[in-house]
Design brief:
Elements lengths: L13 H4 L16 H5 L1 H9 L15 H24 L10 H7 L7 H20 L9 E3 L5 E3 H18 L3
Antiparallel strand pairs: 1-2
Helix pairs in contact: 3-6, 4-6, 4-7
Length: 172
């Protein structure tokens, strides 16, 4: 099976336009998202415990294990970005190339149970960070290398989109 064509879409655009594929609006209340983010691993569990969890349903789609590994790493990255935005004034956020990370980390051959454990750890840590934020901290900013500005609130919505969208990808 050949590698999947890298995704060139700027998914941060869902913050402005929503996502028709998964129903994300971009207007979700960030104060209500830490619970659903913390539950991401539990939501993925049925897909990761299927016998075919490591199988790609089509040549151009990741397996459930690959999507969960990606989400684990995205939530870890979003937590790190949130902490950086809390520690520094308008920092430049580190780049995250999900396709490159998938290849470097060999998502295709990761163990489903270990991925689920890692997703649980990442989701819980990120949700705990969000739960500890004070009102004024949600508007702290960070800049992506291309100049796009995020607040902690918009970054959290973007993280929630990742959870919602990839749950749909695995049929959960």
């Amino acid at each position: 099976m050949s590698p999947i064509e890298p995704d060139k879409k700027d998914w941060a655009e869902v913050l402005d336009t929503g996502c028709a594929e998964c129903g994300f609006t971009g207007r979700e209340d960030v104060l209500e998202l830490s619970g659903p983010i913390a539950e991401a691993a539990a939501s993925f569990a049925p897909a990761l415990t299927r016998a075919d969890a490591a199988d790609r349903p089509r040549d151009d789609r990741w397996s459930s294990v690959e999507y969960a590994a990606h989400l684990r790493d995205v939530l870890t990255e979003f937590r790190s970005r949130t902490l950086l935005m809390l520690d520094e004034q308008a920092p430049t956020l580190p780049n995250f190339d999900g396709d490159a990370v998938a290849l470097e980390s060999d998502y295709r051959h990761q163990n489903a149970a270990e991925v689920l454990d890692g997703l649980n750890t990442a989701a819980t840590a990120y949700a705990d960070t969000l739960s500890g934020l004070e009102d004024g901290q949600w508007q702290r900013t960070g800049l992506r290398a291309d100049g796009r500005e995020f607040t902690i609130a918009s970054l959290t919505r973007y993280g929630w989109h990742e959870v919602r969208h990839h749950l749909g990808d695995v049929g959960a």
